[in-house]
Fold this protein.
Amino acid sequence: MARGWESKSVEQQQEEATSDAGNKKARLTAEEIGAEKRRETLRLARRRVEQQLEVVTNARHREMLEAALRDLDGQIGRR
């Protein structure tokens, strides 16, 4: 009998966690969601440029990547 009670408790906890996450997302406006997606895209792009900088050997390519990194930092800072 105790096992059944534990299972129901776990199910209830999972439902509550899912509904809490849904409520937080529902509170954001479409504009806020778009802004968050944009920030995440910028962070991912920055991470990719950093990875490329680690292995680049061509000086001109390095300059281009450094300029891109500065630009991404500027965009992230403005948001």
